[in-house]
Write a structure and sequence with these properties.
CATH architecture: 3-Layer(aba) Sandwich
Pfam families: Acid_phosphat_B
Number of domains: 1
Number of helices: 7
InterPro entries: Acid_phosphat_B-like, HAD-like_sf, HAD_sf
Strand content: 5-15%
Order of helices and strands: HHHEHEHEHEHE
Strand order of the largest sheet: 3-2-1-4-5
Protein name: Phosphatase
Keywords: Signal
Largest sheet: 5 strands, parallel
CATH class: Alpha Beta
CATH topology: Rossmann fold
Distance between the termini: 42 Å
CATH superfamily: HAD superfamily/HAD-like
Radius of gyration: 18 Å
Structural class: alpha/beta
Helix content: 40-55%
Amino acid sequence: MPRFRALVPLAVAGTVLTGLLALPGQAAAAAPRAAAALPPYPTWVADVTAVADQASAYLRDRLPGSGRPAIVLDIDNTSLESNYHPSLAEVPAVAPVLRVAQYAAQHGATVFFVTGRLKIEDWITRYNLTKAGYQYAGVYETDLGDLFDLQKYKTAARADIEAKGYTIVANIGNNDSDLAGGHAERTFKLPDYGGQLP
């Protein structure tokens, strides 16, 4: 019996850690449930492209500009196709958003990511972003406590970017928590289909 009691905390910790790791990266097991209520992949890409085209048009007028311009991107279902192509570290880029990021970088803007992913996933996140083709200056990731108020955390992250001397000319995300709270000249909201696409 003592040996069994000693194993219980380990089992609980393993279950909690597995669940936490799955949250931001959209676990493959959860994807079929969520995808059932979502539009087909080509529809989603078309919807994203419409918004990305607006962002591109804005950046063509805004960049290079003066000062230190920056753009901020969310990761899951904004920069990486986390829901439609779940994987641990090989999630493909959302192509229209990657094109926006590449244009911005080529025209003098610095790219930052502000995500709800946990800091313990940092190496996987950075590996995946780089492999998907993104060039960036920084990734802001959460501590466990930040998950209770993502909007507050993401707003503070953008304020920190501004405190480093950058002007955030565009902020792109698919959830209200990605965009609310200011600290960006313009925001671009990708589809989340009534909150069904986290």
